[in-house]
Design goal:
The protein is about 45% helix and about 15% strand. With about 280 residues, it is α/β, with parallel strands linked by helices. The chain binds adenosine monophosphate, zinc ion and fe (iii) ion (2 copies). One fe (iii) ion binds next to loops.
Length: about 280
Amino acid sequence: MYMASDLHIHTDASDGMLAPQMIVDMAIQAGLSHIAITDHDTIDGIQAIYQGDNKDYHGLTVIPGIEFSTDMPQREIHILGYYIDIKNPILRKQLQVLHVNRRDRARKMVLKVAALGYDIHYDEVLAVAGEKSTIGRPHIARVLVEKNYFPSISSVFDVLLEQNRPGYVPHYKLSVAQIITLIHQANGIPVLAHPGLIADDSVVLDMIHSGVQGLEVYHPSHTKSQTKEYLNLAEKYHLAITGGSDFHATPDRFPEKLGIFTIPDELVLNLQRLSMIGRGGCF
Ligand code: AMP
Ligand code: ZN
Ligand code: FE
Ligand code: FE
C-alpha cells in the first residue's frame, strides 16, 4: 500500500499559522504516515507535540526537524536537520541565541519599514507572532497586509522584504559549516532545503561538498525538470532524497492544506536508516 509523508512543515512556533497539535490532527485526518516539523530556528513546536517519549499518534509518526537559514551574497540558503535530538544542550543553547537575534532583527526591519513611511510598530509584529515564537519576515508582512498596505504576503516580500529590498536585514551570521556541525552534534541529518530556490547549481554543488547528506528534491517551488535534475544529483552524490510541502497554512500559498503535496514513505525509511547509521558512529 502506498503510504504518504511530508517532511517540511511549519507551525506557529515559527512563521506557520497553526498550532502544533492542529498540524498533528490535520496530518492524521489526511492519512499521512510520517510528518517532520521543521520550524525556523526552533524546536518548541515539536516539544509541544511530544508527550513523554511518545512520537506516534494514531499511526502518524512525528519526526523532529528544524530549518536553519544563512545569508550568502545575493541568496539565502536553508538547511534542514532531521532526527535531531531536541534535548541536546549545544543545540538548545544555539537556538536561544538565534531566538534573541531574530527578535533584534525583526525590530530593525520594522524600523526600516517604518522609515519608508509605513505605519508599523514592533509591538504589532509581536502580537501577530505570539509571545514565544521565533519571529520572521512573514510576521511583519502579515501586519502590513492586515493594514491594507499590500494585497498579499508575497507582494510585501517583493517590495520590501526580499534580500535586495529596502526593509531587509540579514540573519544572525551562522555559516553553512556551523549549521552542518550543529545538526551533527545533535545527531541529526543535514539536508539542503529547496535547492531550486537557490537558482545556482554551482552553489548547490558547494553545499553538497560542504557535507549535506540529503537533498530536498520534492518541493512545491520546483518545476518538473528541476525535480528531475535534483533527483539525478542526489543519486550521483549518494544523497538522501527528501521532500515536503513547506506548509505554513498561509492562505495565498500552495499547498493550502496537508496531504496534497507528499512523498512516498520509502524515502522517509531511507532517511531513518541513515540517521541510525549516524547514531552507530559509522560516519
Ligand atoms: P525569515 O525566516 O525571516 O528569513 O523568513 C523566511 C520565510 O519567509 C520563509 O518561510 C519563506 O517561505 C517566506 N518567504 C520568503 N520569500 C517569500 C515570498 N516571496 N513570499 C512569501 N513568503 C516568502
Ligand atoms: Zn517559513
Ligand atoms: Fe525554507
Ligand atoms: Fe520552510
